Amino acid sequence: MFHPYMIQTDILIIGAGPCGLFTVFEAGLLKLRCHLVDALPIPGGQCAEIYPKKPIYDIPGYPEILAGDLVDNLMKQIEPFNPGFTLGERAESLEKQDDGDFLLITSEGTKIKAPIVVIAGGLGCFEPRKPPLENITDFESKGIDYIIKDPEKYRDKKLVIAGGGDSALDWTILLADIAAEVNLVHRRESFRGALDSVDKVMELARAGKINLITNAEVIALEGEEQLKSVSIKPKGGEAYKKSLDYFIPLFGLAPKLGPIAEWGLNIDKNAIEVNTFDYATNVDGIYAIGDINTYPGKLKLILCGFHEATLMVQSAFKKIYPDKKLSFKYTTVVGVQGFED
Questions:
Q1: CA–CA dist 27, 323 (Å, integer)
Q2: How far, in Å, CA of 207 to CA of 19, rounded?
Q3: HSE (CB half, 13 Å, CA atoms) of 46?
Q4: How many helices and strands in the chain, by DSSP H and E?
Q5: What mean pLDDT comes out for the span 87-109?
Q6: pTM to 2 decimals?
């Protein structure tokens, strides 16, 4: 039974990051209505909330685009399809109803009903991975940042960045032209990031624009009200102090599925197992796309999430309208407006 206070839609999307937003576009081309739920207060997921000023290099057609600008473009792209948003509320319980639809209830009691559920929650609930330093919590927001939101905060400052993945490399490259001093500390000689980014960091080090400190770790923090220095210990060598304004450990995010883990889905290491035909889960009518899913050969790239969203929507249409023939038209022929109701 439909209640007046209940939101009814064709596709319920949990997660309003880039993959969730692009799902709205692909669904709109098939005249399917979408409603998005996200615990964050604004659309865009991590790209908007955590690193809006971080450059992204693997979006087709954009040699470089800021994460926040990508979100803005996606929002413009889906505007013709008028999706609904429930923001600042976490998806809590999900149950299948007698009529075959799913009923989602959020942390604030909002009820949303749909025949198709798409989980596009990125890493799910997440928190930064912190280095095991005894007094690290004493300096959080007092010289230690786990996430970079605005690079201008670090203009003309002395920085120590720790990490060996894409995030550490990308921010080192960007901040080299902003900060007074950038030190990149990594416990190994080799890096886990993109080869092009590694080459750029090496070139910056050779040019004297950054200090690259490999085979070393930050082992201690010192300061009173504010962090003043860190101790860096090379392998097989003596520890030494480095004065700074900010210590930025970038060791990635620890994913936690939260309530989603209780929905009867097959889970492997905090990721939802899907097939590669249409990215469906083991529960009929529930799909998972983007970083939150896993399958053989999975790559955690926005580009891959867009591909997954495209195929998933085709399958969703057939489930919602099993008797209708799906006739997909190229947007280059009819334009987006041709798909609107």
A1: 18
A2: 38
A3: 22
A4: 7, 23
A5: 92
A6: 0.67
The bridge status of strand 125-128 relative to strand 158-162 is unpaired
Query: Of the ranges 119-128, 202-211, 262-271, which one carries the lowest mean pLDDT score?
Result: 119-128
Q: Which pLDDT tens digit goes with each residue over 166-196? A: 889 989 999 999 999 999 999 999 998 888 8
| CA 299 – CA 330 distance, rounded (Å) | 27
Question: What gap in Å lies between CA 118 and CA 311, rounded to an integer?
Answer: 12
Whose tokens are 């971080």? That residue is 54
- pLDDT at residue number 96: 95
Query: Among 8-17, 24-33, 47-56, 82-91, whose mean pLDDT is lowest?
Result: 47-56
Residue 85 burial class via C-beta count within 10 angstroms: exposed 0-12, middle 13-18, buried 19 and up: middle
- CATH class given for the domain over 130-249: alpha beta
337 φ, ψ to 5°? -60, -25
301 CB burial (10 A radius; 0-12, 13-18, 19+): middle
7-126+253-339: CATH superfamily: FAD/NAD(P)-binding domain (3.50.50.60)
Query: Where along the chain do the CATH 3.50.50.60 domains lie?
Result: 7-126+253-339, 130-249
pLDDT at 4: 46
